[in-house]
Specification:
Length: 601
């Protein structure tokens, strides 16, 4: 069937009853009954009875534009009653533009297309338990209160541009193929709880002026709410979707809680005009260019969502990868209103967001890390220092490194990812470090400080002297964060100092002071002279002795704590001690600083 909006049967010959009145010069728009000049509503009683007697269950009927009273509809459905299934059974039914006062289609079976395009239901429309074996169209239809409880749609269901002035009830309705509600308007409550959508469901540009109830609804295909507006809905879900849930461009006008279990949830350019909480399971979430006017919290829900009956909603079609939530992008977001709780941020792109220093990161939020694989650099093995990283650094290193052997573990960028320079990455790390520090997450904040310093070191726009200083700071202590590296350097410095003292710094023997005197008359003058230490001249094995080792070790240990040992030294030993008393306390201080940065709260 073609889309009902373009159905060529929308134009038909009119009954024209009452065309002589000035208020309605066209008269009745109902299509004449075959063989007559009037529609079913304005047909003479005997002619109507004769027409109804010709109908059999499953017959095709055409009553486009016909006004139906409750009694007239009952007469029509009674003529089509099938005693074998104990309900009325219609073939293809044309009700384009028909006007119903009270429409009771409960448990009616439509074996052909059911076409209610442009129909109006001024009273209650009852389709409870109705079955639509083929396509059903309610495009541009207008309803007061509509009931489709336990209705089943085996074909495509079109409700696009329909208007529901009162509540709409689709409780436990089932849609086997596409369900189209785009541009529909729900002035009252829209209830889709426990509805099942086996195909895609489209609610694009739909307006929900009242509550939108989708609790325990399940979608096997994509659930689209792009451009939809939820004016006062306090809750959306819990719903389960085996494909994507698209909220792109949707607007939430009141405080709302969203409970969604789906592999993908996109909220591109979604606008929250009030506070909101997104409780999600299994989802990869995209918040690109979302607008937050009040606090919005995104949290992972570890257990299935409870319903109003305190039972859990089954999730049979979701991937078996754990209920964790992964945020993929916050580009263009004002993060001052965003709070994240128990979210995987290892692949999240933060570039383009503002006020990242005010982002709230609570619970067990995880970031990416450096590769664990060993790479070879200039024929030497190299392992990356384990730390938390942003995905933007992964992309930068993958772009800037032309050695395939060093790219293992660094994720490659997608085609639309911006090519950020180290200066921009340093700013990202700086802002997120401030956010983590405000949340008292000092260890992860230390990792982001490391990342910031790394980007500054690689920033070619900075002065060469500054980059050289940063390179030395990185090599010696990992920016004051790698205690093992600093202690290794300290141990190496102490070892070099110890060997230098044993080989050249300690004299052959301790010089003994000599006292000389001179008598002038009754006065005696005494002078004490200490000879200069003699450089060792013996063989190497004569210099490396236990006694000399003990003396050199005392000098080294005192140098580490910036104290003088008082040991007599040669000229070379004196300069060696001076250098060690400068370098080794600095290295010790860096090691203490690194330990503190790792263990402080």
């Amino acid at each position: 069937m073609t889309h009902p909006m373009f159905d060529p049967l929308l134009n038909w010959q009119h009954c024209g009853h009452g065309a002589d009145t000035p208020a309605d010069p066209d008269g009745c728009r109902g299509i004449p009954v075959p063989g007559h000049t009037a529609c079913l509503a304005h047909l003479a009683d005997t002619d109507r009875t004769g027409y109804l007697d010709t109908l059999r269950p499953g017959a095709d009927i055409d009553h486009r534009g016909t006004p139906f009273t409750k009694h007239l509809l009952e007469q029509l459905l009674s003529a089509l009653h099938d005693p074998t299934i104990r309900r009325a059974r219609l073939g293809t039914a044309w009700f384009h533009g028909a006007a119903f006062h009270e429409a009771w289609f409960g448990h009616v079976s439509f074996s052909g297309d059911a076409l209610f395009t442009g129909a109006s239901f001024s009273g209650t429309a009852h389709f409870n338990g109705a079955s639509f074996s083929s396509d059903a169209s309610f495009t541009l239809a207008s309803f007061s209160a509509a009931f489709f409880v336990v209705a089943s749609f085996s074909g495509r269901a079109w409700f696009d541009s329909a208007r529901f002035s009162d509540y709409a009830e689709f409780h436990r309705a089932s849609f086997s193929r596409t369900a189209e509600f785009s541009a529909a308007s729900f002035s009252g409550s829209a209830r889709f709880h426990e509805a099942t959508f086996a195909g895609g469901a489209e609610f694009n540009v739909t307006t929900f002026s009242g509550a939108a109830r989708f609790d325990k609804a399940s979608f096997s295909g994509t659930a689209q709410f792009e451009g939809a507006r939820f004016e006062v809905a306090p809750r959306l879900g819990p719903l389960v979707c085996a494909a994507d849930v698209r909220l792109d461009g949707a607007v939430f006008g009141a405080p709302v809680t969203l409970e969604i279990s789906a592999p993908t949830v996109t909220c591109v350019r979604t606008q929250w005009e009030s506070a909101a909480t997104l409780r999600l399971r299994y989802a990869e979430v995209d918040l690109s260019d979302a607008v937050f006017e009040h606090p919005v919290t995104v949290t992972a829900h570890t257990t299935p969502f409870p319903t109003f009956r305190d039972d859990s909603q089954p999730e049979p079609e979701l991937p078996d990868r754990g209920p964790g939530v992964r945020l993929t992008c916050v580009r263009g977001v004002d993060a001052a209103y965003l709070a994240l709780h128990d979210i995987d941020l290892s692949a999240c792109r933060f570039a383009g967001a503002i006020h990242l220093d005010q982002l709230r990161v609570d619970g067990w939020c995880t970031f990416g890390s450096t590769p664990a694989a060993t790479v070879w650099y200039r024929n030497l093995p190299r392992r990356w220092s384990l730390r938390r990283t942003l995905v933007e650094e992964h992309h930068w290193r993958a772009r800037s490194n032309d050695r395939p052997s060093q790219l293992r573990g660094w994720s490659s960028p997608a085609g639309d990812d911006p090519d950020l320079q180290p200066a921009a990455l340093a700013a990202l790390y700086r802002q997120l470090r401030k956010s983590l520090e405000d949340g008292k997450n000092e260890p992860d904040a230390a990792d982001f400080y490391y990342g910031e310093m790394e980007m500054r070191r690689h920033d070619s726009t900075r002065p060469t002297a500054e980059r050289a200083l940063l390179a030395a700071y990185w090599a010696l202590s990992g920016y004051g964060l790698r205690a093992a590296r600093t202690l290794t350097w300290l141990l190496a410095a102490m070892t070099v100092t110890l060997l230098a003292l044993m080989l050249w710094g300690l004299p052959t023997d301790n010089p003994q002071p000599k006292i000389t005197g001179r008598q002038t008359g009754s006065e005696i003058t005494l002078t004490t002279n200490t000879p200069d230490p003699r450089n060792p001249t013996g063989a190497w094995d004569e210099r490396v002795t236990t006694e000399r080792f003990e003396k050199a070790l005392r000098v080294v240990i005192n140098s580490v704590v910036f104290r003088s040992s008082g040991q007599d030294l040669t000229t070379a030993g004196t300069y060696t001690e001076m250098a060690s008393r400068i370098a080794e306390p600095v290295l010790l201080g860096l090691a203490v600083l690194a330990i503190r940065n790792r263990v402080k709260r």
